[in-house]
Amino acid sequence: MKQAIINAVVHTGEEVINNGVFVVENGKILSVQKEIPNAIETIDLEGKHIAAGFIDIQINGGERLYFSQTPTEEAIQDIYETSRKYGTTQVLPCLISSSNETILQGIEAVRNYREKHDNGVIGMHLEGPFLNPLRRGAHSIDQVRKPTNKELEEIIKYGKGVIKVITIAPECFTEEQLDMLLESGIVISIGHSTISYKEAQPYFAKGINLVTHLFNAMTQFGHREPGLVGASFENENVFTPVILDGSHCDYAAARLAYKLKQDKFFLISDATFLGRKVTNFNWDNFDAHLENGFYRNKDGNLAGASISMLEAVQNAYNHLNVSADEALKMASSRVANAIGLGDKFGKIKAGFPATFVKFNADLSEIETFDFFKS
Fold first, then answer.
1. At 335, which helix (H) or strand (E)?
2. pLDDT at 372 over 70
3. Which entry of 146, 171, 261, 369 is 20 to 30 Å from 84 by CA?
4. Is 370 an annotated catalytic residue?
5. What local confidence, expressed as pLDDT, does residue 312 receive?
6. Do the beta carbons of residue 197 and residue 156 sit within 8 Å?
7. pTM confidence score
8. Catalytic one among 179, 270, 325, 370?
């Protein structure tokens, strides 16, 4: 059934249309226009703002389950359902450094889930296990390792069509192994790495255009050694996602990063769990407890985030001196662009999913408003 959404301030991801109208049918946007079609059911937003739903490409758990601990369809559903409560309509459940068996189980769970559900689970993010142990963060030292050709080939083959993003420390790879990944079509993100500013340049020149959680688990910017942070700033094609919770990244640092990166700056949650209902968690040498609103491990280090994409967007608006429209793009169209899906997600545009957030002008009230049924 066709429906027209009317009387809305429409943030399309490309422009803002006052008193805009768009038509949806079968979970898709058919058109964006200014006139109300004849003989069609209308949904009056009464002047509210509307934008594409958020996209979270790094989300580890929902309200109850942690995907790496329980790589199951139930955990994926928990992540998806919980994310929807906070304006996120597309997700990549994230599996952190794990055994090869667990990685394959996670891939299988995402594949099976997507075959059963036509919703916003668009793939999977594999963060590790091929990371530098010196920058492993909260990842278990028992699981972080260098790739072998056999294991890498198996993950690429089995993960085809499922793994959309893989975070690696490229210094742990041979040239042959890196070429295997580049040829696979999986988006490669550099993270949990010790590479310097100079060492980063050949990897960016090869076409790697993404880093994992800017500032965290990477070499920092210094005036004599600009580090991976500086290399990310200088290379104009590199996207730089930030965990904008005020702890993983100070708001002043985020403001500077945004000034340098502009449309390559976007938001992720990297949430260990959403909703802050899980206060203590232990799994495979990974531990986290909720302390003053942040997850930390027994050593006092940050152990994933606790914010939602909704909170990240609100923080961007309140702390980065940007417009509401700009904050929304950081969580939608720019995220899609970063993973090569800008022609499919993140905009209110004909052919795109009918998945939205409805909100007031200052982003203090946001709710999910979509037409997915599963």
1. helix 333-338
2. no
3. 261
4. no
5. 98
6. no
7. 0.97
8. 270
